[in-house]
Amino acid sequence: MAVMTVVSAVGLIFDDRVLAGAAIWFKPFKFAVSFVVYALALAWMLTLVTRGRRLGWWAGTLVALSSLTEMAIITGQVIRGKRSHFNHATPFDETLFNAMAVTVVILWTSTLVIAILLTRARIADRASAWAIRSGVLLALVGAGFGFLMTQPTSAQRAAGNLDTADVIGAHSVGVPDGGPSMPLTGWSTTGGDLRIPHFIGMHALQLLPLFLLALVSLAPRFPRLRDARIRLRLVLVASGAYAAVVALVTWQALRGQPLLHPDGATLGAAALIVVASAVGALGALRPAPAGQRTGTCPESASAQKEFVS
What we know:
Elements: H1 2-14, E1 18-19, E2 22-23, H2 26-46, H3 53-80, H4 91-120, H5 126-149, H6 154-159, E3 172-173, E4 192-193, H7 195-202, H8 204-218, H9 228-254, H10 264-284, H11 298-308
Antiparallel strand pairs: 1-2, 3-4
């Protein structure tokens, strides 16, 4: 995937073809970058598995093989100048898209196996355990939004030609794919976009453990963060806030609303999430009774050191 990131970047520079309103090499570039960070995070998490390590090895291998197959199909379709996703134009294109659907199911199921193994793993530091498990579970939810995109849109159903349509499914909600979009992400600026909750959900896999890593790194400067109970509370608040944001952007997308043009209901819900998170964080930062502080005990210090390493 690292190699494909470079290849796709070269394609973006030297191949000026446009497909569905975007540079034709933009899709493989985004997928390659996403798979790089996804695979690195899963590989690290697999080192924490204490039970069923061989099953974890097979699950990780299936993630690698399924993502490799999906990238091969995407790149092959780019070379042909064809859509990879939602393409039913010819029997061959439809077969390739169906093959991608199978790889996604395998990838999702394999990640679920890894998530189950992580829930059974003995991770000494509770904050680390929650950050890792919350991250992988939210990533599964985010990946699951990809299945919504394969369903016919209301416009496609209204056309009544699903048996002969060239394209079935879409990223956008309420507007056709390929319209005005945000730079870099390609998300629609005129309608809802299911890629937003898909992206945000999947990258909980990296962001929640990174949040804890930031807390651990700041602990030498802020003594309160040395308390393992406080770090655990902050991770729980962050996990809840992250889940609420995923739910919010999903609700917004399904209503056909652009991310950058929220209505009053969306802004109100966002304000509630901010207030609840702030209150939760302030509550989490209250010091534990002196006799119950665990941040400096040998077990906690050892777990913190293991997490950082």
